[in-house]
Amino acid sequence: MADATPPDPGTATETVTSADGTTIAVERTGSGPPLVLVYGNGDVHQFWDAGGVRSTFAERYTVYAIERRGRGQSGDGAEYELEREAEDAAAVVTAIDEPVMLLGHSGGALYSLEAALRTDNLHKLILYEPPLQVDDNELDIAEELAEIQTLVDRGENEQALVLFGRDIAGLPPDELDALRSAPTWQEMVDAAHTLPRELAAISEYKFEAARFADVTTPTLLLSGSESPPLYENATNAVNDALPNSRIATFEGEQHMAMHTAPDRFVDEVLTFIGEPN
């Protein structure tokens, strides 16, 4: 990775070139074994700062927080496909000179799962509720997607982001209100133009369990007991597909336990990382 000017002491912004030539920015902090973080749709890399999650990880690990394509200091490609996101995560993982622990949330969990097929440098994989369509849970978001696109075209990014959080991500009012009052809300609003393309790609994604039969990386699947059925079924499907995985459930939590129960989230991740392969 190429170092750039660090935004504050102890933190450095680095770059990696993805498979299609796009420059992906990564914010590095802490020291120790490498832990790469991939946030989901509608977010920015500061997503991991809520509840002190990133800073706590950085006490033990070198934390690499990816800024996904089309946001912040990362570049963008001429055409968008879900595979590019997976290639971005895989490029970051591969660029690190020792085996990596990869943690993805929501859409970031899907990109991380796909990245596991594209790199041999994974030590452990942690996935929190990838939005997969399995069983009878179809991601029927055509109407919402059209409305989000209209809002983005009008420059009404904040309304588009609220619609996404409420009607697609399924965030309850208190979690949505917490996001809107977060210091990173404006950065999220600025990045909302990427939502239509990302959501369209996810809605078209077909999960094929057989593709992951050889992914033997130890994997922790995280889930909230109160999350919508789509997430629960997706988590179970991935667990069935992977030969070396287990599920940990946050009782009483939903899709954002890293924000609503950060201590429990961190403890679960650290326990898994500390387990032998």
What kind of sheet is the major sheet? 9 strands, mixed
Tally of extended strands?
9
- Could you spell the SSE succession in H and E letters? EEEEHEHEHEHHHHHEHEHH
- Radius of gyration, in Å, reads 17 Å
Question: What is the helix fraction of residues, given as a range?
Answer: 25-40%
Low-confidence stretches are: 1-9
Query: What count of helical segments does DSSP give?
Result: 11
Name the average pLDDT: 92
Category by helix and strand content: alpha/beta
Brief rundown of the structure:
The protein is of the alpha/beta class. The chain has eleven helices and nine strands.
SSE diagram, text form:
Elements: E1 2-3, E2 11-17, E3 23-30, E4 34-38, H1 53-58, E5 62-67, H2 82-95, E6 100-105, H3 107-115, E7 122-128, H4 142-153, H5 157-168, H6 173-180, H7 185-190, H8 195-204, E8 219-224, H9 229-241, E9 245-250, H10 257-260, H11 262-274
Parallel strand pairs: 4-5, 4-6, 6-7, 7-8, 8-9
Antiparallel strand pairs: 1-2, 2-3, 3-5
Task: Provide a descriptive summary of the structure in words.
It is a single chain. The protein is an alpha/beta fold and 277 residues long. Helix content is 39%, strand content 19%. Strands 1-2-3-5-4-6-7-8-9 form a nine-stranded mixed β-sheet, sandwiched between helices. The model is unreliable at 1-9 (pLDDT under 50).
